[in-house]
Amino acid sequence: MSSQRPAQGEQPPRSTDVSRRRFLELLGAAGFTGAVATAITGPLIKAKIAEASRGGGDNSHRWVMVIDLSKCIGCQYCVYACQAVNDVADEMRWNVYLLDKTETGQPFNMTRPCMHCQEPPCADVCPVGATFQRGDGLVVMDYDRCIGCRYCMVACPYDVRRFNWVDRRTEGELNHYQPQYGEPEVQRRPRGVVEKCTFCIQRIDRGLEHGLAPGVDRQATPACVNICPVSARVFGDLNDPESAVTKIIESTPTFRLREELGTEPNVYYIPAEGMVPK
Amino acid sequence: MSTIAAAPQPAARGELPPRRAFRIWMGFLAVLLAIGAVSGVIVLVRGLGVTGLTDRVPWGLWIALDLSSISLGAGAFILSAIVYLLRVERFRAFARVAVLVGFLGYSSAMLALFLDIGRPDRFWHPVVFWNVHSVLWEVTMCVVLYFTVLAAEMVPVVAESRFVTRRWPGAPKVGHFIHRFTPVLAVIGLALSLLHQSSLGATYGVVAARPLWYKPSLPVMFILSAAGGGIAATLLGTLIVSYLRGKYVINSKVIRQVAIFAGAAMALYLYIKIWDWATTTYYSSIPARAEGLALLINTTPYGTTFWIIEVLLGGLVPTVIFFSRKLRENDWMLMLACLLTIAGVVLLRWNVTISGLVVPQDWSPGVAFLFPRISYTPTLPEIGAFLGIVAYALAGFTLAVRYLPIFTAGTDGH
């Protein structure tokens, strides 16, 4: 080593020049390698990006839910219907109920599914693209791709994501909300993956195949909307000017949760009485 | 003191620490490794349900561990950048020990992540299924590629070891061949490290949902503290080996010079940290951030640990020691500074991870903060696996320093 290196203090300017040239050579080599690598992998990256933004749903629709807090009586049937149809455990409820209070102390019933954001933070952060947004705006998951890193749970502003901490398939846990006859609509998710509300895509997609209108025909409508005894939940296509949700949003003051984050939720709330939405 | 052992020492296999102390130390690590192995098996068989993690606090001890071990492995990229790019030849003596610490740090992180993901059988998915919008994808790819670089840089070291040369006399030639690419590997490693060391901070910094995290200073603080912590970890290992062998394994003067680099990194880190604190809390107040911080300070030791350990003991004190000529000439003070730096760097990662998660998110449209603070306590299998992984890194360092030509400055012909 010392034989190749000029002694310290001997011709210092020259040794500096050499190291700088060497440095530039290395930079050049790195740049060249980078350019070649980009040329080779460019098409691959494009294919990967195209694949990541894959997936179902027709972008002529935009599925939206309206929840009327002034109508909700807090029976929590939406919570239970969701558990029955999607085979969800008690400690992993996709729909959440909460007895909330207004600024003046007036109690009101608050329920909350997934917001199906138009700018979903959970899909942005997923390292493998297991969570993705469909053409119709629904934010859904590929349970076969999820690695269970739980970054989506950390990034979701609405606490809608649930992780399968234990294996609900082998432990034979009985879901008391689920009918014990017929075929379940949705398979139980395996241990180690995250899961979430889908707005019952199985119903929307099958319904559209059979020429039904989600939000109008009950077979094609999310379970939580169907069961609501006071019709506090309304579902439909915001791209359709004649749909119930479009008419409500046009005519009634609504708000969305944590709008300041720019997530553009697809769930709209009608305020409870005496409520000043934040 | 700096004049002792002015010349670099040759690799001295004859001067190992007393055999008995070595056996006790390795026995202790073996016990921890066994605990770690049992815990790891429990986690893999029974799933993450055995941890203290919940849907509200889905990241915990292991995430803090892998962030910390990656940051403490940063010495490799900083020191190889200084050696191979800035061509500061006298720091070359550190190149191998830094690469070793990096290799152990990154492999520890990967062990922790392997347990931490819900589906370890799908650990390869990020390499095949790309989401280029995800900062975690970028981190994963960089860590995988950089680990490959570190492994390649380890090849010459292993090839030159007595164990290998005795069986395959031609092995050092392979090592020499790879060694010729070391400068290129160093450039690639530098680029990859600059990317993911800061992106690990960005992993938190981009989460708009959590006001305590959402700020552009986190990536900067992560990379600066990693530079300080990485050099400190490398330095501490070198000093401990020097102490055990009763002589400096790297020129004592060079050790002090490297310490100044650690001091510079920590000083920059502290500067950003203080301004980050001032701008986000003292000079401004965003409702959710102020309320979240108040909740943390009132219900957790966050405030105390932030000021006492992160800023004072883990930041200010070691910076002063690194910069003060008198203090850094004292080996014990230097070791203390390295230990404190490491503690500060680790605690930053723990505090960032946990603080952002235990403060509940206020999504309710009604009265703010109906939700109480969420608690998280690691369970025994979690702690067991943590101890096992730490023991793996320590055992790896002990054995590598003993059996591989790590401290060989001036004797290898490169």
What topology emerges from the helices and strands here?
The complex is a heterodimer of chains A (278) and B (414).
Chain A: H1 12-52, E1 63-68, H2 77-86, E2 96-101, E3 107-112, H3 121-125, E4 131-133, E5 139-141, H4 151-155, E6 162-163, E7 194-195, H5 201-209, H6 223-227, E8 233-237, H7 244-251, E9 267-270
Chain B: H1 19-46, H2 61-72, H3 75-85, H4 95-116, H5 125-128, H6 135-159, H7 162-167, H8 171-179, H9 182-205, H10 217-245, H11 252-282, H12 287-299, H13 302-323, H14 325-329, H15 331-358, H16 380-403
Helix pairs in contact in B: 1-16, 2-4, 2-10, 2-15, 3-4, 3-9, 3-10, 4-6, 4-10, 4-16, 6-8, 6-9, 9-10, 10-11, 10-15, 11-13, 13-15
Number of strands of chain A: 9
CATH topology of the domain at 23-249 and 374-403 in chain B: Formate dehydrogenase/DMSO reductase fold
Q: What are the secondary-structure elements of chain B, in order, as H or E?
A: HHHHHHHHHHHHHHHH
Number of structurally distinct domains of chain A: 2
Strand order of the largest sheet of chain A: 8-1-9
Average pLDDT metric of chain A: 86
Element-by-element helix/strand order of chain A: HEHEEHEEHEEHHEHE
User: What share of residues are in beta strands of chain B?
Assistant: under 5%
What best-fitting shape of chain B do the alpha-carbon axes yield? globular
End-to-end distance of chain A, in Å?
69 Å
Q: So what's the oligomer here?
A: heterodimer
Low-confidence stretches of chain A: 1-16
Question: Could you walk me through the main structural features you see in this protein, from its secondary elements to its overall organization?
Answer:
- The complex is a heterodimer of chains A (about 280) and B (about 425).
- Chain A contains seven helices and nine strands.
- With about 280 residues, chain A is an alpha+beta fold.
- In chain A, a hairpin with a 5-residue loop joins strand 2 and strand 3.
- Chain B is mainly alpha-helical.
- The longest helix of chain B is centred in the middle third of the chain and has 31 residues.
- The N terminus and C terminus of chain B are likely disordered.
- Classes of the chains: A alpha+beta (about 280), B mainly alpha (about 425).
- Chains A and B meet through helix 1, strand 2, strand 3, helix 3 and helix 4 of A and helix 6 and helix 9 of B.
